[in-house]
Amino acid sequence: MHELGIVFYIIRDVKKAAQENGVSTVAEVVMNIGEVSTVIPEYLEDCWRWAADKEDILRGAQLRCNIIPAVTVCNSCGKEYPTVEHAKTCPHCGSEDTVLRCGNEVEIKEIIVPNTN
Question: Which residues are registered as beta bridge partners of 34?
């Protein structure tokens, strides 16, 4: 399970961003997880809870994962199609000259801090 390692990197990056911005508490971290990224969001969330609660700045903070659909573009006909359903072969023209356009990302989209009002 590589999700635990990914969680450690997320925590490192969130703590750095919080420090750079004078933030002492984080309420939520929002991730973009690509459909074909090999990261399993449920595992990531389980690892997050265990690791985040060990950090004062992240104690109780939620992790929310947005799943980004995998989309491939065909270099032969220029059309896009859903990657998971058709893999590397374009369903429009049959070409295998295709490139994954999105759906492989694992990135922090947003760090939400508690409302101080």
Answer: 68
